[in-house]
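Researcher: Going back to the complex we discussed earlier. I've cleaned up the inputs and rechecked each line, so this should be the final set. Can you rerun the prediction on the complete assembly and write out the structure?
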Amino acid sequence: MNSLTVRALLVRGMLAGVAAGLLAFGLAYLIGEPGMNAGIAYEDAHTHEHGMELVSRALQSTAGLATAVLVFGTAVGGITALAFCFALGRIGRFGARATAALVAAGAFATVYLVPFLKYPANPPGANDPATIGKRTTLYFLMIALTVLLALAAVLLGRRLAGRWGNWNATLAAATAFLVMIAVAMAFLPAVNETPKDFPATALWQFRLASLGIQALLWSTFGAVFGYLAERVLEPKPATDAVPANAERTAAAAH
Amino acid sequence: MAHSAIAPAPLSPPAVLKLPIRAILPWAAFFGLLMLVLLYFVGAEQGATSLLPGAGVHEWVHDGRHLLGFPCH
Ligand SMILES: [Zn+2]
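Model: Rerun complete. Updated structure for the full complex:
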């Protein structure tokens, strides 16, 4: 029975991820593509080699972009739903919706926002293609480190909650998390490869667009998954749609 | 609340449901891994590392890879 609940939540997480991915794709197409095109225009003006185009720009900016964002949404939706299963009832007295919102916010912060502060998104042309190996390693290392430190902070908060109360324990765990992240950021190498004449406005707008796309994806996921998870976990509606016999039981209890 | 004296137990807010860890683990192990593989193909395949030959996957997800924040090229 519990296993079926986990499966139901996993499926809903993936569905919520698809919904979030659809919205994020729309926003990415509207506000992300101008920055992509600006980067590619800069690249074209500065490199002499023109490699064979495997996928046209028209396809990359529509079907390709949609594929990437939808697969990303589905995958992170599934993983976050599984994280929600672990978190439910274990991070304080939160119901399904509040837990979904907290887990989605935590996932957004650990998987995207904090790593972004150290290694922000870059448009084409803003990096040296030769360093892709180093940049990939550092970016995924930063994500893994942030997720692990966040999990450690949650466990620490749970441990302290008994003695210090929820509020102080949460503050202490969050402080510990921020200190450790600051130390990690100070020691990990910086990536500053953007050419001096790269258009600064395009870079700034590209990064804001990336932040907006991810924020929309995760907030949509949190809201939709919270609604779906609540219907799985708390099927009895709490308000006006109370069945007649439940009302009678409630009346008899008084 | 005076009415709460009627309630059977002193713990008035209902306990939140917990899903047993061993019910979650099989799903997390299998589907968690599957989702990570999907993320790898969106975020990194044919960049720093390649499982498939060519650059088709990289080229297809190219714009999403940049805009979702992954290092691309
Ligand atoms: Zn690229």
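Model: Worth noting: Residues A 124; B 62, 66, 72-73 surround zinc ion (CB under 6 Å).
Researcher: Good, that matches what I expected from the previous run.
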